[in-house]
Design goal:
single chain, about 1250 residues, alpha+beta, 3-stranded antiparallel sheet, 46 helices, about 45% helix, extended, KH_dom, mRNA binding, repeat, KH_dom_type_1_sf, cytoplasm
Length: about 1250
């Protein structure tokens, strides 16, 4: 990259004068570099470089063309055709600028070189399209342009242009010329070509080739009277088509709607001549033989004579050989001219009159508003007429009372009769009215309101569009319905005029909670305030504004209700996370979710547990803070009851914490798993604490503490780590059942073996930690075990066929468990019976196969010791035993390791009919459930099955409380049934029984009964509490104090309401008693709130207001950023301070209101602040007066700027009073050309 300095004689003189005035002596002046230091010379060329720069003659050799996307073109511009002949250095003039611009615009790469004859050689490289465009622009901008004209017939010009100008563009690119073709309205036939001589010759040649090709074709234009065109074309253009096929010429006859007489014939010359002769002969024949007659036909009948798309005219021409000349549609003339041979005119005239009279037009009058009722829904009424009379056309004119019927006379009369009957019927039973309603209410009417009115009164309501700017609403329909709809619309508008809109600010994160799932919660609010419209912003709008619209009182009530709801949401959003051992999660949930539901109900919190397949042990509790803490204690209490949980702390240096945790927590996780899943919590890294917390069962906590201390000691003494790889399916076998195998390895070697977690990124990596010799020994033992597992053997054992089903049932679950537990051993049972059916094959590692054989033998022993126990339970209870989707039966089977069997449990036919005399002695077969398993397990399962048999119990509940127990839409009773897993039956209201029936398992029924009685007690307490809370008292307070009592954004009154738990209502605008406040709540609370209000009013009566004058320039500083400073001051002095608004007549007047002493203190403080801020304001203004920007032509001392200065520059040489000539090769030598050295030059000797 190079820098160019442009010097003029004036700037050169200024520079020299600046240098003369400046003294270069003294240590205080900045160092001025010499010219050679500031602009070091370029290095000299070496011989090799000079030789490399010479042309090698490689261009002379023939290079085979290679097809590629990048091409190169070279062309030459002679000296006499160069547009720019710069006298200066080549490559720095206008030519270089033009080339740079072309490269940027086309993307091609351009290189210029100067030939010996001073001609210009240009090499363009790039993609074909870019090269062609760049070449065209280079020729146009760097080469002098010549021009020439080529004259070719006007009709050939379009062939030069081509379709969409594509031919012309291609020609211009190929020849690098500009070709100008005259416009179609220009009579000139000359085409102008501009470009280089070579390009002009190429383009001229191409144009003449196009002309020669088109010259072989002929074009004839024949002007014949328009009236004879139909005879030449023939009926349906058949005659002209036959002529074109016979001669091969193309014949173009203008359509009847185009007022042109010219017929164009194109094609080969012979074909054109033949077609021309045939057409002219036909024309002469028709002109000689034909004559004309004129007839008058009503203008309205003309369209029937013409027919659709002129078909009727063509039919008359075909049938009679007579052409009809119709007057234009916009002409008032009714005269039709018939042209043809005399003996054919009569039949043609008859056909014209018959066609004209075959169709009649009748108009029926009906009010415009009735038209869409006449048409009917989806065109039902009018469709009935058109189906009966398909040739009748019915046309309704928009905005007019006229209906046109058009068609055959008889059918039109029938249609007219039916239409008049429909109109008469509608006029009798239909009416309309118009109501003027302001346009601002239209959007509130549209939708549910108008739809309800339409359906209720069977009317049509038309509300104008916004773009119509009209307030006229039209109601149409039954006369009585129209009047009722009109009255209701006016009532709605009157209500809307009394409505108000209120905006609540609610954080967007609470919107979804307020709305509820599928809008249930907001629907309840809307049901409670049906007259209030609640609009939430779109989630994408990121807005916090909720809009309420409706009657003023209802909007206020709804706003207060929503504010209380939001306050509860905010209060209930506190969250706690409690770590609970995974094995105790099911106990916290309880049977059927009983425990967790009870905790949620009693603490009023939301408790979320992790999913079963999750590794997390955290239980998240959400609600009020005190409720969350209570729920946490309840959950921890359950864990403490189930296990002897202990918590202890051990001191381990913080520098060892990371090494004890291990990579991704693998080391500490292995300790926790080995010690029964205890929780080990390390302090945060930045805390610097040494205390590590261990929590879990007492014995396991002590064990984990010892292991941690041992690990820490090992880390301090000697810590060594090794890793090895083993297939993940071997890991469970290496660990052994209950960790027995890996424990033996650790006991023998003293090293710790860490296996990867299930979702670890490297599932085959095993880490061994400990002393080096212990790690080496453990690694050797593990590698030996893995090698034995890799040594695959195949063995077999005998298993009785009756036991096979146990292993392969449930999709081979037992076999999968064996494979997982014993290193992926493959166990194969025979598919068929016979002698070999007892043989079971095992394949895998030697140790795995042996262990799997022992396990299979244990399972067979368990199976052979099984017994069957029969449990008699009535068939009607079997479905309850199975549970939803068989969940209860599956849980019982898994818990007691038995198999219950019954004909009805698996969907077999049930037994019906009455019991016989021996029913009690011999139970029915369908009532028997057979349980198979070990004897002790069968007895436990039998007891569990009997416990699942449902019972029914009646609970005495007062009839008056039934509806509260049922809850809104049955939510209360449904919640209890889900919580206690019972069915609760409430008698119908008309029976008025004081009994509620509970059916379910015995334990669940007992809990449900207690829950019902508890709910009854709560409802009775609520009734009593509601009566106590209904106490009301009134208090008279002057209206001028109301704003102060309410406070900023309701802060004062909200605090009083909160402190005393009361409701305080202020009078509405327009109320008779504007000074009366109503306080409601408990009697004691009402008395306390009344006393607080009386004290507040007494303080307000003592308040005074005083003005103080403060300089307006200090107001912003006193107020502070966003009013923070003034708010703090008002809170400190307990006063109210108001500053004047912008544009006030007294901008320095500030009002202070409060108690006299507080007002005096606040004013004194404000005056002190003014004094402090005025010092700062005065100082700022004084500095601003002196801080004016320096002039461009002066430096910091006021002297003229000298710019960049160097010493020993060429222009400072003796005799160098003139500015250097930039066009001189002596003053500014270039890189390419050699210049004769000049001894007196200031540049020194020429470098070679």
């Amino acid at each position: 990259m190079s820098s160019v300095a442009v010097l003029t004689p004036e700037s050169f003189a200024e520079h020299r004068s600046g240098l003369k005035d400046q003294e270069l002596t003294g240590n205080d002046e900045a160092y001025i570099p010499t010219y050679l230091e500031a602009f070091p010379p370029l290095p000299e060329k070496t011989a090799a470089e000079a030789k490399a720069g010479e042309p090698s003659g490689a261009w002379g050799s023939k290079i085979k063309p290679i097809k590629a996307s990048v091409i190169t073109q070279v062309f030459h511009v002679p000296l006499e055709e160069r547009r720019y002949r710069d006298n200066g250095q080549f490559g720095e003039g206008e030519e270089a600028k033009v080339c740079l611009d072309i490269m940027q615009r086309t993307g091609a790469h351009i290189e210029l070189s100067l030939a010996k004859d001073q001609g210009l050689s240009i090499m363009v490289t790039g993609k074909l399209d870019s090269v062609m465009k760049a070449r065209k622009e280079i020729v146009a901008r760097l080469q002098t342009q010549a021009s020439a004209t080529v004259a070719i017939p006007k009709e050939h010009h379009r062939f030069v242009i081509g379709k969409n100008g594509e031919k012309l563009q291609e020609l211009e690119l190929r020849t690098a010329t500009k070709i100008a073709i005259p416009r179609h309205d220009d009579p000139s036939t000359s085409i102008r070509i501009t470009g280089t001589k070579e390009g002009i010759e190429k383009a001229r040649h191409e144009v003449l080739l196009i002309h020669a090709e088109q010259d072989k074709r002929a074009v004839e234009r024949l002007c014949l009277e328009k009236a004879f065109h139909p005879f030449i074309a023939g009926a349906h253009n058949r005659l002209v088509q036959e002529l074109s096929q016979e001669t091969g010429a193309r014949i173009s006859i203008p359509p009847p709607s185009v007022p042109k007489d010219e017929i164009v014939i194109t094609g080969e010359k012979e074909a054109v001549a033949m077609a021309l002769g045939r057409i002219r002969a036909l024309y002469d024949d028709k002109k000689r033989k034909t004559t004309t007659i004129s007839v008058e036909v009503k203008k309205s009948q003309h369209k029937y004579i013409v027919g659709p798309k002129g078909t009727t005219l063509q039919e008359i021409l075909e049938a009679t050989g007579v052409s009809l000349e119709m007057p234009p549609l916009d002409s008032p003339s009714e005269t039709i001219i018939l042209r043809g041979e005399p003996d054919h005119l009569g039949p043609a005239l008859t056909q014209v009159y018959a066609t004209a009279k075959s169709v009649t037009v009748v108009e029926v009058t009906a009010p415009a508003w009735l038209h869409h009722y006449i048409i009917g829904k989806k065109g039902q009424n009018i469709g009935r007429i058109t189906q009966q009379l398909p040739r009748v056309h019915i046309e309704f004119t928009d905005g007019e009372e006229r209906i046109s019927l058009e068609g055959p006379t008889e059918e039109v009369e029938q249609a007219q009769t039916q239409m008049l009957e429909i109109i008469q019927d509608l006029l009798v039973r239909m009416d309309y009215t118009e109501v003027v309603i302001e346009q601002r209410f239209h959007r509130h009417l549209i939708g549910k309101n108008v739809n309800r009115i339409k359906e209720q009164y069977k009317v049509s309501v038309r509300i104008p569009q916004d773009c119509e700017h009209s307030g006229l609403v039209r109601i149409e329909g039954d006369p009585q319905g129209v009047q009722k709809a009109r009255r209701e619309l006016l009532e709605m508008v009157q209500r809307m005029e009394n409505e108000r809109t209120k905006e609540l600010t609610v954080e967007q994160r609470y919107h979804r909670t307020i709305i509820g799932q599928k809008g249930e919660k907001i629907r309840e609010v809307r049901d409670k305030f049906p007259e209030v419209v609640i609009n939430f912003p779109d989630p994408a709008a990121k807005s916090d504004v909720v809009q309420l619209r409706g009657p003023k009182n209802e909007v206020e009530k709804c706003g207060k209700f929503l504010q209380r709801l939001i306050a509860e949401l905010i209060e209930n959003s506190f969250s706690l996370s409690v770590p609970i051992f995974k094995q105790f999660h099911k106990n916290i949930i309880g049977k059927g979710g009983a425990n967790i539901k009870k905790i949620r109900e009693e603490t009023n919190t939301k408790i979320d547990l992790p999913t079963e397949n999750s590794n997390s042990e955290m239980i998240v509790i959400t609600g009020r803070k005190n409720h969350c803490e209570a729920a946490r204690e309840r959950v921890l209490a359950i864990q403490r009851e189930l296990a002897n949980i202990k918590e202890t702390e051990v001191a381990i240096p913080s520098r060892l914490h990371n090494s004890l945790i291990g990579s991704r927590g693998c080391l500490v996780r292995s300790v926790m798993e080995e010690c029964g899943g205890v929780h080990i919590h390390f302090p945060p890294e930045a805390s610097g604490s040494d205390q590590v917390t261990i929590r879990g069962p007492a014995g396991q906590v002590e064990r984990a503490r010892r292991q941690l201390l041992q690990l820490a000691q090992e880390k301090q003494v000697n810590s060594f780590t090794a890793e090895m790889q083993a297939p993940s399916e071997y890991h469970r076998f290496l660990i052994g059942r209950g960790g027995a195998n890996i424990r033996r390895v650790r006991d023998r070697t003293g090293a710790r073996v860490i296996f990867p977690a299930p979702h670890d990124g490297e599932p085959e990596r095993i880490t061994i930690v400990g002393r080096e010799e212990a790690v080496r020994l453990a690694q050797k033992e593990l590698e030996a075990l893995v090698k034995n597992l890799d040594d695959v053997v195949e063995d077999s054992m005998a298993v009785e066929p009756r036991h096979h089903r146990h292993f392969v049932c449930r999709r081979g679950q037992v076999l999968r468990e064996l494979a997982e537990e014993y290193g992926g051993v493959a166990v194969s049972f025979p598919r068929t019976g016979g002698a070999a059916s007892r043989r079971v094959t095992l394949k895998g590692g030697r140790d795995c196969v042996d262990a799997a054989k022992r396990r299979i033998q244990e399972i067979i022993e368990d199976l052979e010791s099984q017994v069957s126990v029969e449990v008699v339970i009535q068939q009607q209870f079997h479905r309850a035993l199975v549970g939803p989707k068989g969940s209860r039966l599956q849980q019982l089977t898994k818990e007691h390791q038995v198999q219950p069997l019954s004909s009805t449990l698996f969907g077999a036919p049930q037994e019906n009919g009455e019991a016989g005399p021996h029913a009690e002695a011999a139970p029915r077969k369908c009532d028997i459930i057979t349980v198979s398993g070990r004897p002790e397990k069968c007895e436990l399962a039998k007891a569990a099955l009997l416990a699942l048999v449902p019972v029914t119990e009646d609970v005495e509940v007062s009839y008056e409380l039934h509806r509260y127990i049922i809850g809104q839409k049955g939510s209360g009773i449904r919640k209890m049934m889900e919580e206690y897993e019972v069915n609760i039956w409430v008698p119908p209201p008309e029976q008025q029984w004081d009994v509620v029936r509970v059916t379910g398992q015995l334990t669940n029924v007992g809990r449900a009964r207690e829950g019902l009685l508890q709910r009854v007690r709560e409802l009775q307490a609520e009734q009593e509490d509601r009566a106590l809370r209904s106490f009301k008292a009134t208090m008279s307070v002057e209206p001028r104090f109301h704003p102060k009592i309410i406070g900023r954004k309701g802060a004062v009154i909200s605090q009083i309401r909160k402190d005393h738990d009361v409701s305080i209502q202020f009078p509405e605008k327009g109320d008779e008693h504007q000074d009366v406040l109503v306080i409601s709540g408990y009697e004691a609370n009402v008395a306390g709130a009344r006393g607080a209000l009386e004290r507040l009013v007494a303080e307000l009566r003592e308040m005074v207001s005083q003005d103080v004058r403060l300089d307006p320039r200090t107001h912003a500083r006193i107020i502070g950023a966003r009013g923070k400073a003034i708010r703090k001051l008002m809170e400190e002095f307990k006063v109210d301070i108001k500053f004047p608004p912008p544009g006030s007549e007294e901008p320095d007047r500030v009002a202070v209101t409060g108690l006299p002493e507080a007002v005096d203190n606040a004013i004194h403080h404000l005056l002190t602040l003014e004094e402090e801020h005025m010092l700062s304001v005065t100082e700022t203004e004084t500095l601003a007066a002196y801080m004016k920007p320096p002039s461009r032509g002066e430096d910091s001392n006021g002297a003229p700027a000298k710019g960049y200065v160097v010493r020993d520059a060429p222009w400072n040489a003796p005799g160098g009073d003139r500015a250097p000539d930039m066009s001189s090769a002596e003053d500014f030598p270039t890189f390419g050309a050699s210049v004769a050295p000049k001894q007196s030059s200031a540049w020194g000797p020429k470098k070679v």
